[in-house]
Amino acid sequence: MISVLNLNVQHRGAMSGVLTLGSLDPAFEGAPAVDGPVQLDLRAVDFVEPAGLCGLAALLELLTQRTEHVSLALSGRNVAAYLERMDFFRLFGGRVEVHPDVSSLEERERHNPGTLQELINFHTEEEIPRIINRISEILKGKEYLLRERVAICSTLSEICANAAEHGTSSFGAFAAVQAYNHIVSGSRRAGEEVIISIADGGPGIRETLARNPQYKDHTETDNEAIRHALEMGVSSTGELGRGGGLTLVAQISARSGGSLSIRSGAGRVTVYRDRKNSRNVPPFPGTFVRVSLPRHAAEDRP
Asked: What sections of the sequence does the record tag as coiled-coil (predicted)?
């Protein structure tokens, strides 16, 4: 008998039909009980953002460790075509069965619109420059200034390095990036937004910080550990010059009216310009980072 894991996809508002990381919460909650064939029902999904893509990849890595029979149920061809364009089936096609069949999509001619970094799986720091260079190209194409690109890419490089270092599971880490011609967060005024998502399968922030005795009082909960990790200079090693990536990315995204969301273990902290929101969530197998970098239309910029 096939177990079915459903999603929590919004049916109204700006995020209607969008696969986000939060959409996958019921599936992450049900994943530990899977002990046989399982199907993930994505038929309510009309659109996939990078956070949903990386979250889906991490979820499937978790499920394929528990059973050899994992399938996806999709509705229509638009979502399937996007997943193919983002190299999802290149990474998972041999391990996950898809309904309906999408093999014909692989024969399509594709072009690079210059607005996305396909889903990429990485394990070592040597693989990171290619990811960062692609992010820089996307930001340049969206007319981010050189100083903005340098600040963003240098701090994201540290986050990717952390993901590679702590991604001790067999799947390592995933990253995906896309630029949009509309604002999907923040003020929602006309403009553009770049979404960057990075997920690793490591032990998580709480366990990592707990290795350093000086942070013992800040790791009682996952949310407390995430909040502490957002402070400048905090790292598990205590090395000088480490532990600034998350703080700087939070500052950069906040200045642009965007957000930084970090999920690890059963905690999630989202940083906006004037506040931090914490909430308890179903456990995530590692650490997840989502960065939103909006830009208003040229006539609205200072």
From this structure: none
Q: If residue 72 lies in a helix (H) or strand (E), which one and from where to where?
A: strand 70-73
**Residue of 20, 95, 106 whose CA lies nearest to 62:** 95
pLDDT computed for residue 296 by the predictor: 57
Query: What's the topology of domain 1-101?
Result: Transcription Regulator spoIIAA (3.30.750)
Q: Where are the domains of the chain?
A: 1-101, 113-302
**Distance between CA atoms of residues 249 and 254, nearest Å:** 8
Convert the pLDDT of each residue in 155-198 to its tens digit: 888 888 888 876 566 788 999 999 887 644 544 455 678 899 99
Which residues are 173's β-sheet partners?
Answer: 122, 200
**Spacing of C-alpha 35 from chain mean position:** 26
What pLDDT score does 301 carry?
45
Residue-by-residue DSSP string for 100-146: S--GGGGGS-----SSEEEEEEE-SGGGHHHHHHHHHHHHHHTT--H
Contacts of 275 (CB under 8 A, 6+ apart): none
Q: Is 34 exposed, middle or buried (0-12, 13-18, 19+ CB in 10 A)?
A: middle
User: Residue 181's Cα: distance from chain center in Å?
Assistant: 20
Question: What is the maximum span of the chain, computed from C-alpha positions, in angstroms?
Answer: 59
